[in-house]
From TrEMBL:
Keyword Magnesium carried by entry: no
Keyword line: ATP-binding, Cell cycle, Cell division, Cell shape, Cell wall biogenesis/degradation, Cytoplasm, Ligase, Nucleotide-binding, Peptidoglycan synthesis
Native organism: Mesonia sediminis
Name under which the protein is recorded: UDP-N-acetylmuramoyl-tripeptide--D-alanyl-D-alanine ligase
Keyword Cell wall biogenesis/degradation: yes
Record's subcellular location: Cytoplasm
Function: Involved in cell wall formation. Catalyzes the final step in the synthesis of UDP-N-acetylmuramoyl-pentapeptide, the precursor of murein.
All copies of domain Mur ligase central, residue ranges: 93-272
Gene behind the chain: murF
Residue span, Mur ligase C-terminal domain: 296-388
Gene3D superfamilies: Mur ligase, C-terminal domain (3.90.190.20), Mur-like, catalytic domain (3.40.1190.10), MurE/MurF, N-terminal domain (3.40.1390.10)
Organism taxonomic ancestry: Bacteria, Pseudomonadati, Bacteroidota, Flavobacteriia, Flavobacteriales
Molecular-function annotations in GO: UDP-N-acetylmuramoyl-tripeptide-D-alanyl-D-alanine ligase activity
């Protein structure tokens, strides 16, 4: 590890992809189910890598560094770097809203501190170490997102990152298949709080979430926020014209995020900002100016068409919450385009039927459903359903969406963003 850390310090950063490697990078030849990363070591060196870390001796040369396991070495290097710098780390996980909340926290804290934050959703056993290796000597706070779809994964990520602070956005019906049901989700996500139970660590909890309150009632180190005035940070959450809004004392903070569920995310960022003594006017500026992107509740206008693109991911909890918010939006005509929700487990048909029943109850007529799971539900005749996203293209191309509000949501694998060019005024 001493020698590997020296190579890292002398490098311009770490790379695991020869397509984006920069001159002087330390390349880790990670392997997957269908590829051997060691085969790309020579290519990485040709592209300018300073060294290539490999775990197969047949690819060794004077510019390679042989280890037993490349992934484990990457993780160990990240932990070594994190411990040497001892930068305060805030980690967050949860079923919904992780990435948005991470970005809000990062934006708030950046008004006072030099920070780094997880890029995009690099929140797994590879992404977390890569994020930690972005730490610099002058980094004052790191905001690290942690994702998981099985029990034990958050605990493993905590052993890599050793966070000082933690927050769980919520416990919802996400990755039910891997976690083994909602109780498995709660147990798996709570591994973050279990890691932080010692008195020198801190956890942030949403006082308005009974499950979080119940799980942490014996924790001596919790910091609460919520509408209850006895919370450490009293923050009232509401909406204004269906956009998330929070109130701290007499200060009203209006966001550009749709829905009450995003008010919770904004409240978490505000509470963490207050804890770290970011002035309230900077918290307000950060939250009110944040614009969602990357297909997360992203609102765009195309002529007379307004599109709410929320197709980065989906699960039963987030889908129902979003549909409830959309149902309250004022619009002469609405079009709903939904894709299958993946990793739901044995209850997949029941969960997809609940979504269909909700759409029926909300009396939508322009509904387009993509995916083999939606296809197997009991659908009204007026709903259009296809097995693959691309099958919707010729259907949508013939329609006039003038003056429409269009809501799009589905799991990442459905790639619903490919439909955007076909939502036009005729």
């Amino acid at each position: 590890m001493t020698r590997l850390y020296q190579l890292f310090q002398a490098s311009t950063g770490v790379s695991t992809d020869t397509r984006s490697i920069q001159k002087g990078n330390l390349f880790f030849a990670l392997s997957g189910t269908n590829f051997n990363g060691n085969q790309f070591a020579a290519k990485a060196l040709e592209a300018g890598a300073s060294y290539a870390v490999i775990d197969d001796p047949q690819y060794a040369n004077e510019k390679t560094f042989l280890v037993e396991n490349c992934l484990q070495s990457l993780q160990a290097l990240a932990t070594e770097h994190r411990k040497k710098l001892n930068t305060p780390i805030i980690s967050l996980t949860g079923s919904n809203g992780k990435t948005t909340t991470k970005e809000l926290i990062a934006k708030v804290l950046s008004y006072k501190y030099k920070i780094i934050a997880t890029q995009g959703n690099l929140n797994n056993h590879i992404g977390v170490p890569l994020s930690l290796l972005q730490l610099k000597a002058d980094t004052q706070i790191a905001v690290i997102e942690m994702g998981a779809n099985h029990q034990g994964e958050i605990a493993q990520l905590c052993k890599i990152a050793y966070p000082d602070y933690g927050y769980i956005t919520n416990f919802g019906k996400a990755h039910l298949e891997g976690f083994g049901g909602i109780e498995g989700v709660i147990k798996g996500k709570s591994e973050l709080y279990q890691h932080l139970i010692s008195k020198d660590k801190k956890i942030f909890i949403n006082q308005d979430d009974p499950k979080q309150v119940e799980l942490t009632q014996d924790y001596p180190n919790r910091i609460s926020f919520g509408s209850d005035p006895t919370s450490d940070y009293a923050i009232h959450k509401t909406t204004n014209n269906n956009f998330a809004q929070i109130k701290i004392g007499d200060e009203v903070i209006q966001t550009q995020l749709l829905g009450l569920y995003n008010a919770q995310n904004a409240a978490a960022a505000a509470a963490i900002g207050q804890y770290f003594e970011v002035p309230l006017h900077h918290i307000k500026e950060a939250l009110s100016s944040y614009q969602p992107s990357n297909n997360r509740s992203q609102i765009t206008n195309h002529g007379s068409i307004k599109i709410i693109m929320d197709a980065y991911n989906a699960n039963p909890t987030s889908m129902l919450a979003a549909l409830e918010e959309v149902s309250q939006l004022k619009a002469d005509q609405k079009t709903i385009i939904l894709g299958d929700m993946f990793e739901v487990g044995p209850t997949w048909k029941e969960e997809h039927q609940t979504i269909v029943d909700t759409l029926k109850k909300q009396a939508y007529t322009n509904v387009f459903l993509c995916g083999k799971q939606f296809m197997q539900t009991d659908l009204p005749e007026q709903f259009c359903a296809v097995a693959e996203t691309k099958e919707l293209i010729p259907v949508l191309s013939k329609k006039d969406f003038s003056e429409q509000l269009i809501f799009i949501k589905g799991s990442r694998g459905m790639a619903l963003e490919q439909l955007l060019p076909y939502l036009k005024e005729q």
